[in-house]
Amino acid sequence: MTRRGFTALTAFSAARVAGANERIRAGFIGMGARGDRLLDLFLAAGAEAAAVCDVYGPHLDFAASKAKGARRFKDYRLMLDDPSLDAVVIATPDHWHALQFLHACQAGKDVYVEKPLSLTVAEGRQMVEAAGRARRVVQVGTQRRSSAMVREAVEFIRAGGIGRVTAVRACDNLNEWPLGIGKQPGAAPPPELDWDLWLGPAPAVPYNPNRGWYNYRWFRDYSGGQLTNNGIHLVDVVRWALDLGYPRRIAAMGGIYAIDDGREIPDTLEVLWDFGAGALVSFTQYNANDAPANAQGADLEFRGAKATLYLRPDRFEVVPQRVAGRVRYRPGPLHREDTRAAWMASRKPAAAPKLVRGTATADLEHVRNFLECVRSRREPNAPILEGHLSTATCLLGNIALRTGAMLEWDGARERFPGHDAANRLLDYQYRAPFTRPS
Ligand SMILES: NC(=O)c1ccc[n+]([C@@H]2O[C@H](COP(=O)([O-])OP(=O)(O)OC[C@H]3O[C@@H](n4cnc5c(N)ncnc54)[C@H](O)[C@@H]3O)[C@@H](O)[C@H]2O)c1
Q: Which residues, judged by CB distance below 6 Å to any ligand atom, belong to the binding site of ligand 1?
């Protein structure tokens, strides 16, 4: 299929409505690491894998060996032409999500789309609107939203269980020093790979193994780096727990300090968001040191006035703060040690400790929830708007890093007032002939 032929295709079709007892017929786009896992999960949840699509032959072959009888495609547009598909699952690299999603909406398919929702803020906004117009059921792959344990933690925080939350820290540490992904010489693309179609709307560059499977996360043309890769799962829970919309101010610092492998994303990063809600939210990414961020080994900590809630992949723990029953300084000799000691001694735990075990990554529940919603037409646990706001919150962090500015954000307009350089990073020019449908 040539690129000219690719854009000439149209993919409008009427939405099929699955009967209550019928298996949902799903088509899968992107059969790499995540696509393979999602294929297993959808089969386990009772869906029919009716079609599989990849631009790399061996991944397609492997998927087809599991999805018995599935139609095979290199070009997802041809797959979308199949009116018998109820839903599509998008697990391609991030730079493909928007285009494939918009075409899937046009074709009347419900969509399970992997996180991050999009590569740019403008893409995400367009995806939200297209899904709404086409009345599509959309689940974003932020599967913590389907975890009973995470929901319990969120509800505990929302009910005031840890008191007023003033700071939340998210962290994603991994020691990749010294080699990272290694420097790879350029090479001809493997014959089974359609490199041009892998690149799609991204700029044309010669093939390099580092830009291919999985490692594309280290390059800005295809990914927002670890902030939108792992960070989004955490940022999404923070927004959910504190009922946050968009941040108002964003600052970031970091860089490639230690790892010399040709990557473009930082190996060390700190992002700060002020949501105007009286809580400071931060994300730390250390890729040249993996010491845990806290004694609890948690990647997410909610610091409340009564307690700290540490959320880990397999548990959450509430560690009470000690607070004084009376104000600290009453009239008198403020500097005296015994006054201070008495005050310290008067402090009592303000909350009960709590330990809840479970699993944060509720992959199967998330897929089941999507399939239920495809039938019921209800909104899934990770709706597209939340996926967009969490993705965009991360993308704003990257824009703050790249501009080196402390940015003000007008969430209603999705613009940085008076900051042209930052506004330019809200979208990018697709490589011809790829264009987003309006
Ligand atoms: N929710 C989660 O926990 C989770 C976990 C891992 C990955 N992901 C997301 O899943 C997505 C894929 O990640 P991955 O690790 O599987 O990457 P990957 O590189 O292993 O797989 C991507 C696949 O997409 C294929 N592809 C590329 N362009 C295509 C196109 N135009 N049409 C069809 N196929 C195409 C590639 O050949 C490859 O097989 C990413 O967006 C990632 O963020 C989510």
A: 29-35, 53-56, 59, 76, 91-94, 96, 114-115, 141, 143, 197-198, 200, 213-214, 229
Sheet holding 315-320, edge to edge: 354-357, 315-320, 307-312, 300-304, 165-173, 280-286, 268-274, 249-255, 407-408
Q: Against a cut of 0.70, is the pTM above it?
A: yes
Residue 53 backbone phi and psi in degrees, to 5? -140, 135
Architecture of domain 148-362+393-424: 2-Layer Sandwich (3.30)
What does the alpha-carbon distance between residue 136 and residue 131 come to, in Å, rounded to a whole number? 5
By DSSP bridging, strand 138-140 and strand 110-113 are parallel
Q: In what order do the strands lie in the sheet with 71-73?
A: 71-73, 48-53, 25-29, 87-90, 110-113, 138-140
Please, what CATH class does the domain formed by 3-146+363-381 belong to? alpha beta
CA-to-CA distance for 328 and 324, rounded, in angstroms? 7
Each residue's pLDDT tens digit, 50-69:
999 999 999 999 999 999 99
Mutate to test the pocket of ligand 1, among 3, 52, 54 (most ligand atoms within 8 A of CB): 54
Give the domain ranges of the chain: 3-146+363-381, 148-362+393-424
Query: Phi-psi region for residue 320, left (φ > 0), alpha (ψ -120 to 50) or beta?
Result: beta
Q: Which candidate, 435, 332, 360, places its Cα nearest to that of 126?
A: 435
